[in-house]
Amino acid sequence: MWVPVWLRERWGVRVAAAAAAAAVVAVALVLAGIALVLLQERSVRSSVEDQARAQALNAVARLDDGESPEETVTEIATGFVLLQVLDADGTVLAASPQLSTTEPVDGGATAADPDSTVTASVGDDPLLVVREPAAGSLAVLAAGSLAAAERSTETVTQLAVVGVPLLALVAGAATYLFAGLALRPVEAIRSRVAAITGQDLARRVPEPVARDEVGRLARTMNDMLARLDAAQVAQRRFVGDASHELRSPLATITARLELAGRRGPTAGDVAAMVPEAHRMARLIEDLLLLARADERGLAPRRDDVDLDELADDEAARLRATGALTVRAATVPVRVTGDRAQLARVLRNLVDNAARHASSQVTIRLRSDGTEAVLEVADDGPGIPPTDRTRVFDRFVRLDEGRARDAGGVGLGLAIVAEVLAAHGGSVEARAADGGGALMRVRLPRQPVDGVVVPSEALPPTASRS
Hints:
Blueprint lengths: L4 H7 L1 H52 L4 H8 L4 E6 L5 E4 L21 E6 L2 E10 L3 E8 L1 H49 L17 H51 L3 H30 L6 E4 H15 L3 E5 L4 E4 L1 H18 L3 E9 L2 E8 L33 H11 L3 E6 L5 E8 L21
Parallel strand pairs: 7-9
Antiparallel strand pairs: 1-2, 1-5, 3-4, 4-5, 6-8, 9-10, 10-12, 11-12
Helix pairs in contact: 1-2, 2-3, 2-4, 5-6, 6-9, 7-8, 8-9
């Protein structure tokens, strides 16, 4: 039931619902009572008119058969229907004892229209008068009593006056009771939520058995608490991991500074501190990027980006190191997005592959329908199937990558996932043929001259599920 906001604010949902139900029932009963009184009054009036006209027609038949007006009135008139017989001038020739013997009971109102009816009265008794013409320019006035109609109308009105408030009160009380029963699970949910603190998000609200609105509310509340609990756990882990990763370079820099303070700075001190400072700067930059992603999203720019150029640049950069064999197979593919962010995706994927590769890194770029598919593979130890989703979480480093000299703090792939999600893409970890890991990226690509061309033929991709 809809309840006005101001009523809920003042009385609460339960009382407001009961008051609204009582008001609705009262209005409905009043309207129904008025309609009933009008219909009942009309029905009784119609019945009186039918009886009066029937008696008038009976009297007309007798007069037409030659019976005198006095005999007709005496034989037909009853206590319920009274008669008058008039001549052409409107003079009363015969009348029931209750009616005047000098004046027509209708006051001449029905003379112009015999089919009409008028209301008159004899003392306190209301009458409904009808006229029927008879032979010899005579007319019969039949007056039916409306006293019974008035009594029945008064009875119905009195019952409505007493019954409407009573039924409205019963409806309000029943609504108050049932609203209390319906809101009891809501109150249980409210009290449980009020008792849950930021340190106790593992608690859940009770879920009703019924799969109704309250049950859906409880399940939604528990889902929200589960998300908050997971977010809090992730935040605590994130803060702990970030603190640990920042502590290491800071400790190295602090130790070198203290040593330099005692014996004077040396080239070795600078050589030791600069990489640690760069490492800390990269970590802070990554943390800021992820914090922006959590707060309001990355909101990438919407520029035209040639993904094949970025892939070729990364392949050339890795070849320049001379440490690994780099194989690249790309085709022209253009996407819409932020060039700097997509370049960071390529850099992180290639650096991740280079850290774990034994001797070779493979970069492939192709189009697949409406998507651009980028694959970066290495011939290293690979990723266990149970960890292929977890590697995109923050500060996750598998056992093979935990050594300090392996580089990275476990944020590179997390940044890849965040950036691709902001661009409407995705990334997944798979196994490469011959061992090693393969990272497969999918991004929406632009059509060529407004038409999406079929996938280009490329050498087979070295990957397996």
